[in-house]
Design brief:
Layout (H helix, E strand, L loop, with lengths): L9 H6 L4 H11 L3 E7 L12 E6 L5 H9 L17 E6 L3 E5 L10 H17 L3 E9 L6 H13 L3 E6 L6 H15 L10 E2 L8 H9 L9
Parallel strand pairs: 2-4, 2-5, 5-6, 6-7
Antiparallel strand pairs: 1-3, 3-4
Helix pairs in contact: 2-7, 4-5
């Protein structure tokens, strides 16, 4: 029997796009019923732990709610606004009885009081460090601007809490292709210094649908197994 040779480089495996079966699994999951479960402003009101949870984090007005809507194919599931700070609680959405999507309050600039921002920060920190069913986080970064200090602070918090996370670029339809590639490369270069970060940087657009099917596939892989008929 011939020697199959060394295993592929881990980085190459990680950069592989989801195959057709994974994309179909993602499509099927995100086509299922997705409903609002709870809006939580304090940890004592968290829904009972059970299903795996995926938390969506990002700067205020980065496009978190738009991305959640695009993933689920629903225009009004998560509220969108041009006003930074509109999401003022942890919003939980149950997807197909297999996964909870959690839309977190935006960090960074917001048109609210410093006291409110401090309250959100404490809530986020305690949730990220203490939620056993939190499987992964998605850190959304505006593709026009790249990483900001507030993004780096969130990534450091996730590293410290040992919560695996993936950086996803939003609004990928806005910059020119060369500018988008430069931002992607710059973010990837920083991720090698973050132990909890997945090294692949994915670009998405809620407007054009770019990257949505691939992200669905990757999130579906973290969901609870489908019930056997």
């Amino acid at each position: 029997m011939s020697d199959p040779g060394p295993d592929p480089d881990p980085a190459e495996r990680l950069d592989d796009a989801p195959d057709e079966a994974a994309v179909e699994d993602g499509r099927r999951l995100f086509a299922q019923d997705c409903r609002f479960v709870a809006g939580v402003a304090s940890l004592d009101r968290l829904p009972a732990a059970g299903l795996p949870e995926i938390a969506f984090a990002g700067r205020s007005n980065v496009g978190k709610s738009s991305l959640v809507n695009a993933l689920t194919g629903r225009q009004t599931l998560a509220r969108t606004s041009n006003t930074p700070g509109r999401t003022q609680q942890l919003n939980f959405f149950a997807l197909g009885g297999r996964l909870l999507l959690v839309d977190l309050p935006g960090y960074g600039y917001a048109k609210v009081s410093k006291a409110q921002v401090a309250d959100w920060t404490r809530l986020l920190t305690r949730y990220l460090k203490g939620r056993a069913t939190l499987s992964s986080a998605i850190v959304l970064v505006d593709s026009r601007h790249g990483l900001k200090d507030s993004d780096r602070a969130m990534m450091a918090d996730l590293d410290g809490a040992a919560v695996a996370y993936r950086v996803v670029l939003t609004k990928a339809d806005k910059p020119k292709p060369a500018a988008l590639a430069a931002v992607r490369d710059a973010v990837a270069a920083e991720l090698v210094h973050h132990p909890a970060a997945f090294p692949l940087v994915q670009a998405t657009s809620a407007e054009t649908g770019e990257g949505i099917a691939e992200l669905r596939a990757r999130l579906a892989a973290l969901a609870a197994p489908a019930a056997v008929a």
